[in-house]
From TrEMBL:
Organism: Sediminimonas qiaohouensis
Membrane association type: Multi-pass membrane protein
Superkingdom of origin: Bacteria
Record's keyword terms, sorted: ATP-binding, Cell membrane, Hydrolase, Membrane, Metal-binding, Nucleotide-binding, Phosphoprotein, Translocase, Transmembrane, Transmembrane helix
Residue segments, region Disordered: 83-112, 737-760
Protein name per UniProt: P-type Zn(2+) transporter
Subcellular location: Cell membrane
Positions with biased composition (Acidic residues): 100-110
Gene: cadA
EC category name: translocase
Length: 760
């Protein structure tokens, strides 16, 4: 399927279970002429590349991938059954690479179909087959002469190793000779040559078991990501001509109106136009406390209506709703590989040839130099080949990163790839924007000081000037007038005074609503007014002065209240050893009052370019994370080592910065750091497991203490241990809360069984 970019194509590749599988797919296609920018995502099962079709056709790409044992289908087409390495490659024997239609239908399931049981897969069948043959061979040794039982083990070995060898040679033809399949083929064949068929058969069986376990582990990790997309219901109740009918949620378009009953999952991103209800947003943001939704409020696809019927106007098509964009972000994040992962990849390319060379030396040097037994040292060399396979090492980083991304997405903490996770883990300083980040971003009128007339008169003048204003202070003044049922004075010729206020003509005279600085410029800031302004600003309030023909009429004080969890967030960061600073354009007194209440350092009166300068000053000797609203703080977000946007699913929050916090909870900043540090600790554990086990068994293998079957068991065991350790991150709680995200939603569903079908 061709996307909007000329020459870019995307496929879904099935059968990839570990990092080496992704490397095989990449190696199979990147050598083809006309291929560039190859991106293989293991967990998303995605192959994306740029293709010059005058040099290579899409069919040639697909043939190359199938040739190394994987299934491939264009994006949007039903997934193809993976070859899995256990059927003959195309062209080896006429018709051997073809998949019987009935069998393909068994395994090429739609994405939302129930997963196949392990014994229904080709890898599962190989385990059962080789296991049965091995058991029969052992049984034959009890009742048949040794010479005949010997051939039973040879048969068991050949049946298991032939498909592995086919895949090994296919990858060799593709320019990838150093693969686990080639090592297995050499080890099993060598064991047969030196008269160890029983051990060869056991090694082949254990290898098949290891392949199966890798597949099961990879499937579990993928399921955690795919579960996100399943949060959106399949159907929606659409209003058409005064009636409702059930339609596919994927067909909803902006502007349509849907009904959402109590207990139903919200099928779209939209705006409430009728009804009042608590909505559980934990499936989307991880916030377990239901959020009150009434007319004008936004709702997100995948959240659950808890109390009463809501009518919602669709604002985004299915492919652009919050859940779809979160899933897309998590999948795309795989392409932003962590520096540690890139290093491991480079290391493994050198490591594999080095292991093969070392095994060759172990096989020939002792017999030639010291006259030792050939059979014994060849056996040790074969075991060395198996234990030296880097599968566990290669998967150690991406497995942890993928689990962390999935956990973060479930908790409303989005990060664009492993590189961001590493950067967050190294953070030493956090810089916060004030408005909309540490505070709610919605100031309200707190005080009115009248110099002439009444409060209602003062408010009517101010609201008249600010009618239709987009500035938060102007909107707050108009909102206060509405709350008090004060009619705004009729105004004409309104205009903004950038950075200072606004003015308009009311009753034939010019009325101005502006900052104390503007009043001072116009000579209206008397000593008494100056003292009142200073007193209010000392309380963290922003003051505007209403002027009538430059004569003060009164003062209006407003305050943007800090978020309830802001002080706790700063304290949590301090506990983590991270310093915090607030960057704001407010005046020094207001900034100081807010900062003192939160226990945070501050820098005030900063223009956007000043914030960039402040960030650059910090980054000279610290690792800085900038938290902002993702819009007016974009330059500062870009200047920091990590830019994090606050916002409940807004386009900017999901697409502008390196990371996003969906719940608008400041404490999630500390949660993001905890998750990143836990991920890096998990990666270090994985690398230690992979290298530690190999170091131990490399020594014991060379010394002759352990043999072939122990070698393959150690290699398989290391891969499984690394994968299972990475999967522990799926259960990590960044906030330390005891309740898992989504538990509240499950409780609601349990209490409303009559709507169960609508919420699945």
């Amino acid at each position: 399927m061709v996307d909007g970019s000329a020459g870019q194509r995307e496929w879904r590749v099935t059968g990839m279970d570990c990092g080496t599988c992704a490397a095989k797919v990449r190696g199979a296609v990147e050598r083809l002429p006309g291929v560039a920018d190859v991106d293989v995502a293991l967990m998303a099962e995605r192959l994306r590349l740029r293709l010059d079709e005058s040099q290579s056709s899409p069919e040639r790409i697909e043939k190359a991938v199938r040739g190394v044992g994987f299934g491939i289908a264009p994006k949007g087409v039903r997934p193809e059954k993976p070859k899995g390495g256990f059927v003959l490659p195309e062209g080896a024997v006429p018709g051997a690479g073809e998949i019987p239609e009935s069998e393909e239908q068994d395994e090429a399931q739609p994405e939302d179909a129930p997963a196949l049981s392990w014994y229904q897969t080709s890898k599962g069948r190989l385990v059962l087959g080789t296991g049965a043959l091995l058991a029969m061979a052992w049984a034959s040794r009890l009742v048949l002469p040794v010479e005949i039982a010997h051939w039973a083990f040879v048969l068991a070995t050949l049946v298991g190793v032939v498909p592995v060898a086919q895949r090994a040679f296919a990858m060799t033809r593709a320019g990838m000779p150093f693969t686990i399949e080639m090592l297995m083929t050499i080890a099993a064949g060598g064991a047969l040559v030196i008269g160890e068929p029983e051990e060869a058969a056991l090694v082949v069986f254990l290898f098949a078991v290891g392949e199966l376990l890798e597949g099961v582990s990879a499937g579990k990790a993928r399921d955690s990501i795919r579960a996100l997309s399943k949060l959106v219901p399949k159907t929606a109740r659409l209003e058409v001509g005064g009636k409702t009918r059930e339609v596919s949620a994927e067909t909803l378009q902006a502007g349509q109106v849907v009904q959402i009953r109590p207990g139903d999952r919200v099928p779209c991103d939209g705006e409430v136009i009728d009804g009042t209800s608590g909505v559980d947003e934990s499936p989307v943001t991880g916030e377990s406390v239901p959020s009150l939704k009434e007319s004008g409020a936004d709702v997100f696809a995948g959240s659950i209506n808890a109390e009463a019927l809501l009518r919602v106007r669709v604002t985004k098509a299915a492919e652009d709703n919050t859940i779809a964009r979160i899933v897309r972000l998590v999948e795309e994040a795989e392409s932003a590989r962590a520096p540690t992962e890139r290093f491991i990849d480079r290391f493994s390319r050198v490591y594999m040839p080095a292991v093969v060379g070392a095994a060759l030396l172990v096989a020939v040097v002792p017999p030639l130099a010291f006259g030792l037994t050939w059979g014994e040292w060849v056996y040790r060399a074969l075991a060395l080949l198996l234990i030296g396979c880097p599968c566990a090492l290669v998967i150690s980083v991406p497995a942890s990163i993928t689990s962390a991304l999935a956990t973060g997405a479930r908790n409303g903490l989005l990060m664009k790839g492993g590189a961001v996770i590493e950067a967050v883990a190294r953070t030493t300083h956090v810089a916060f924007d004030k408005t909309g980040t540490l505070t709610h971003g919605k100031p309200r009128v707190t005080d009115m000081s009248v110099l002439t007339g009444s409060e209602d008169d003062l408010l009517a003048l101010a609201a008249g000037v600010e009618s239709g204003a987009s500035h938060p202070l102007g909107q707050a003044i108009c909102a206060e007038a509405d709350r008090r049922s004060v009619d705004a004075a009729a105004a004409t010729g309104g205009r903004a005074l950038p950075g200072k206020g606004a003015e308009a003509v009311i009753g034939g005279v010019t009325i101005c609503v502006g900052s104390p600085r503007l009043a001072d410029e116009r000579g209206a800031l008397t000593g008494d007014i100056r003292n009142r302004v200073a007193s209010l600003e000392a309380e963290g309030k922003t003051v505007v002065i209403v002027l009538r023909e430059n004569v003060p009429q009164g003062l209006i004080a407003l305050r943007d209240e800090p978020r309830a969890d802001a002080a706790d967030a700063v304290a949590q960061l301090h506990t983590l050893g991270i310093s915090s600073v607030m960057l704001t354009g407010d005046n020094p007194r207001t900034a100081q009052a807010i900062a003192e209440g939160l226990g945070i350092e501050h820098r005030s009166e900063l223009m956007p370019e000043d914030k960039v300068t402040a960030i650059r000053d910090l980054t000279t000797d610290a690792r800085v994370m900038m938290i902002g609203d993702g819009i007016n703080d974009a330059p500062a977000l870009a200047a920091a080592h990590v830019g994090v946007a606050m916002g409940s699913g807004t386009d900017v929050a999901l697409e502008t910065a390196d990371a996003a916090i969906l719940r608008n909870r400041v404490t999630d900043v500390a949660g993001k750091v905890r998750l990143s540090r836990a991920t890096m600790a998990n990666i270090r554990q994985n690398i230690a497991i992979a290298l530690g086990l190999k170091a131990v068994f490399l020594v014991t293998t060379v010394l002759g203490i352990t043999g072939l079957w122990i070698a393959i068991l150690a290699d398989t065991g290391a891969t499984v241990l690394v994968t299972m350790n990475a999967l522990r991150l799926l259960f990590f709680r960044p906030s330390g809360a005891s309740e898992a995200p989504g538990e509240a939603s499950r409780d609601i569903q349990k209490t409303r069984p009559e709507h169960a079908s609508a919420t699945t």
